[in-house]
Every structure is written in C-alpha cells, then in structure tokens.
TrEMBL record:
Main location: cytoplasm
Subunit structure: Homodimer.
Gene giving rise to this polypeptide: glmS
Catalyzed reactions per annotation: D-fructose 6-phosphate + L-glutamine = D-glucosamine 6-phosphate + L-glutamate
Keyword annotations: Aminotransferase, Cytoplasm, Glutamine amidotransferase, Repeat, Transferase
MF term (GO), any: glutamine-fructose-6-phosphate transaminase (isomerizing) activity
Enzyme Commission number: 2.6.1.16
Record GO biological process: amino sugar biosynthetic process; carbohydrate metabolic process; fructose 6-phosphate metabolic process; protein N-linked glycosylation; UDP-N-acetylglucosamine metabolic process
Protein name: Glutamine--fructose-6-phosphate aminotransferase [isomerizing]
Gene Ontology CC entries for this record: cytosol
Shown residues in whole-protein numbering: 244 to 607 of 607
C-alpha cells in the first residue's frame, strides 16, 4: 500500500526517519549512553581485520562504513563488490571478520562470498533487512536493519538503515578494541540518536529539490562529486539517477576530476557536488571551481555555512541541516534520492519498476 504517496519509492524515502529510529533502537542504549549489539555477548575484541562485501547500493553503504571502522576502531578494512571478491584470491587471515551487507539477504554473489569466507575461517556478520533470508540464517552475527519491506526496486530506506547499523557496529568494535572511552561513546550515541530528526529536516527540502530536478531532466550525462564519506554518496547518487531516470551518470572522488573526467565538462553536463562544511570542504570546493571555470553547471548540496561560502555562481544550491559528520551520510542520502526520484517522475519512467532490473538478484 502506497498510502498517500504516488510511488513506493517516494513512500520509502519518507519512511526513513521512522525506520532509522526503529533500526537504531536495537543498537543504542540511550539510558546509559552506550552502543550495543543485538547479541550482547558477541566478542569483537579478537577481530583484527574486516572484509566488507556487497553489491550495488549496499556496497556503497559498505564504502561509507570503511571510513568509520578505520577512524574509530583503527581496524584495517578490505572492501569489494561481491562479484569481484569471489573471483580474486582474497587473503583472509585469522581474526578476520567478513561483513556482508544486503537488503534482500539473497543476492547470489554476496551469498557465495559469505560461504567462501566461512570456509576460509572468517567470522561472518550480516547486515540484512530480511530476517528470514539465507544470509541472515548463515551469519554468526545477524545485524538486522529494521527498514520493513522495501518494494521500490531502487533501494532507499534500506541504505540509510544499513548506514545506521554500520555506524553503531563501528562504535561497538571501537569499544571492544579499547579505542572508545565512555565519554566518546556517549558523544557517538548522542549524534546517532539525532539522525532521525536530521533526516526529517532533509525531507523538508523536497520541494526545492523537485524544482531543481527540472534542470537535470534534459541532461544526457550527469556527474556527482564528493570526498571522504561523500564519495560513496556520489556513487550512490549516480546509481539512483541512472537506474530510474535512465540518464547516464557517474560518481567520482572530487580529487579525481582532474585526472580525466574533467575533459567531459561543458555547459550541458550538470555536476552535483556533495560537500557539507567541515575539514574537507575547501578541497572539494576547489575541485568544484575547476568545473565552473570550464563552464560546468554546478548543483551544490551543502549546509548553510557551505552554501554561504561557495554557493555563488552555482546553477542551484540545496541547503541541508548542519549535522555531525557521523550522521551526514544518512542525511545527504535524502537529497540524492529525491533528486533521482523527481527527475524520473518528470521524465515519466516507471519509478518503482525500472526496465531491466529485479529487486533481488539471485543469479550471478
Ligand atoms: C540499487 C539497488 C541494487 C541493490 C543490489 C544489492 O538501488 O537496489 O543495486 O542494492 O542489487 O541488493 P541487496 O542489498 O539485496 O543485496
């Protein structure tokens, strides 16, 4: 049931504040300011290495999480798409944890990677949205996302819930490794608990994003740029746009622009720049200005400070609430999803059932 929404995708985008809150409930003990796991006595202290494997949007959630595991827990992270992981000769040592991320819990390549890692003696954690799925059953540590059924083929609410789980899991791992004192843990819990309200704040810009979508509709190609955790978001933005609007889109690490893709820039290629204010902002803005100097039309997605500092000369700006960097990926996912959604609606494509795509990819 779509309720009063036009499409399941729109409904699921709007459900995000509620389902992220619902998901976090299993991982945050707000009363005593601690993060926790659904299996409280699962021992993480011996984990020396993390391998993340997933496909598509779930893979991009994993890419964001890599920054968190490394930053908070100082544990090295290897990440790959499942279809590549299977066919290389990945080195899996003792003390390794594999994390598979999957909405459906049935994606064939991800499941095969899980089974391969198990044979190699890895512990398996599964961030999965369908609790009865094969991956959920085969994991040592089930880390459920509580997004509820996702009907739209383009993944939205499952992605933000995956991010919520992975952030909380990274904090758990950091504590188990002795890298998170009680004060820092309390801070993290406080920031994570703010995510649902901040996502709600991002949804308030829906109309502005819809108005902006008109500029994207005529484009043949669109580029998305971001740095740090905004780099996977750029990839996710490009994937969302191409899969439902059929506009060719690519995401790049902002600093890679000058190593090739900048040759594509002209006034016909809109460039979506995802850049909250913060330590990486200046760097990304200088990449953005290189685009503008070549006639590129930029849409800047930032917060008030970022838009004030760099919004001039942009085709459009989208102002997100100012949030802590930990929850920024969950918040900035919203404009990226809404932009793809509105472009697709304006183009008249089948938003919930895009051509050639299946919700669950159970063949290789
Ligand atoms: C993108 C999308 C796909 C899935 C991918 C993995 O919007 O829906 O890229 O993310 O097929 O699916 P799961 O997460 O079920 O393993």
């Amino acid at each position: 049931d779509k309720g009063n929404h036009r499409h399941f995708m729109q409904k699921e985008i709007y459900e995000q504040p509620v389902v992220v809150a619902q998901t976090l409930k299993a991982y945050l003990q707000r009363m005593d300011d601690r993060v926790s796991l659904p299996i409280p006595d699962f021992d993480l202290s011996a984990i020396r290495r993390v391998t993340i494997v997933a496909c598509g949007t779930s893979y991009y959630a994993g890419m964001v999480a890599k920054y968190w595991f490394e930053q908070f827990a100082r544990v090295p992270v290897d990440i790959d798409v499942a279809s590549e992981f299977r066919y290389r000769a990945p080195v899996m040592e003792d003390g390794g944890l594999m994390i598979v991320i999957s909405q459906s819990g049935e994606t064939a390549d991800t499941l095969a990677a899980l089974r391969h890692a198990r044979e190699e003696g890895q512990k398996i954690a599964a961030v999965v949205n369908v609790p009865t799925s094969t991956m959920a059953r085969e994991a040592d540590l089930l880390l459920p996302t509580n997004a509820g059924p996702e009907i739209g083929v383009a993944s939205t609410k499952a992605f933000t819930c995956q991010l919520a789980v992975l952030a909380a899991f990274a904090a758990n791992l950091a504590r188990a490794k002795g890298r998170l004192d009680a004060k820092a843990e309390k801070e993290l819990v406080r920031h994570l608990a703010e995510a649902p309200a901040a996502i709600n704040g991002a949804l308030a810009y829906d109309e502005a994003i819809e108005a902006m979508a008109h500029h994207i509709v005529p484009a043949r190609d669109v580029l998305y740029l971001g740095r740090g955790t905004d780099y996977p978001l750029a990839l996710e933005g490009a994937l969302k746009l191409k899969e439902i609007s059929y506009i060719h889109a690519e995401g790049y690490a902002a600093g890679e622009m000058k190593h090739g893709p900048i040759a594509l820039i002209d006034e016909l290629v809109p460039v979506i720049v995802i850049a909250p204010s913060g330590p990486l902002f200046e760097k990304t803005v200088s990449n953005m200005q290189e685009v503008q100097a070549r006639g590129g039309k930029v849409v800047l997605i930032s917060d008030y400070d970022g838009v004030q500092a760099a919004g001039e000369g942009c085709l459009a700006t989208i102002t997100m609430p100012k949030v802590h960097p930990l929850i920024a990926p969950m918040v900035y996912a919203v404009p990226v999803q809404l932009l793809a959604y509105h472009v697709a609606v304006l183009k008249g494509t089948d938003v919930d059932q895009p051509r050639n795509l299946a919700k669950s990819v159970t063949v290789e």
